[in-house]
Amino acid sequence: MLLKQCGADDHTVSLHLVTDAEIRELNSRYRHKDMPTNVLSFPFADGMDPSFAGLPVRELGEIVISLDTAGREAEEFGQTFEDRLIWLVTHGLLHLLGYDHERSGAEEQRMQTRETELIAYLSQNRRTSMPHLAINVDHVATIRQARGTIEPDPVAAAAICELAGASGIVVHLREDRRHIQDRDVQLLRQTVKTRLNLEMGASREIIDFALELKPDMVTLVPEKRQELTTEGGLNVTGQKKKLAQTVKSMAARDIP
After folding, report:
1. In this structure, are 36 and 116 located in the same domain?
2. Phi, psi of 230 (to 5 degrees)
3. pTM beyond 0.85, yes or no
4. Of 12, 134, 142, 148, which residue is the least packed, with the fewest Cβ within 10 Å?
5. H or E stretch including 218?
6. Alpha-carbon torsion 246, 248, 254, 134, what sign?
């Protein structure tokens, strides 16, 4: 929402939440100030090798915020911790966009005015609830298969994701079993406490597996053995009859 209001919604920003000790080290290394601060911004273009100029990279840069300092400032200024973080993110983003309150008095006023505008907009338009997001653990299994060992385990990774607040777990059981294995999905069905979304192709073997497993939901996706990962969309028109039968079979088992 902030990026859109700043005309930069086609760019991304990396946000790092750190301690006072961590931000002090960065402040000392890059600004030669041996003390913690509330927020630091590192524009992507600063010091970038010229050879990267032609790459289609849409990255504004990094914002680093000290949670320790943010907490103290929230108490000092009579703000909620959330409101203080919003101000610091806004302040850091404006630095990435070229604003600099240390440049001159006029620039300081310009930056403060823009901060006020953006924060007012957010207070009137931001969501009051967070979206429910599920985590795909396929490529934890990809690493395991590449190593030819039993670790890292996507089942353990899924448990960690749920403990961290994920609203669901997603896995893709491919016909070629290149990453997720039958064992993984069976254990996830027993251990996932939120919702298990099984991505699958509409092959007879996988359909039968899903009907027996009864995941919380299924997502039909295209598969090509020559691709490294799933690419493109599902050709619904060309497989209308087959997909309709698959959906009917799932519905009969109360699988959405």
Report:
1. yes
2. -60, 125
3. no
4. 148
5. strand 217-220
6. positive
Number of domains in the chain: 2
Residues 155 and 236 reside in one and the same domain: yes
Supply 179's token pair.
Answer: 């990453």
Q: Do 36 and 66 meet the contact criterion of CB atoms below 8 Å apart?
A: yes
Assigned token pair, 216: 């919380």
Tens of pLDDT, residue by residue, the chain (256 residues): 888 888 888 888 889 999 999 999 999 998 999 999 999 999 886 665 565 555 555 778 899 999 999 999 999 999 999 899 999 999 999 999 889 898 899 989 999 999 999 998 888 877 666 678 899 999 999 999 999 999 999 999 999 999 988 999 999 999 888 899 999 999 999 999 999 999 988 888 999 999 999 999 999 888 766 665 656 666 677 778 888 888 889 998 889 8
Contact predicate 144/150, CB 8 Å: yes
Specify whether 16 is located in the same domain as 109: yes
Structure tokens at 194: 């939120």
Q: What is the CATH number of the domain that holds 140?
A: 3.20.20.70
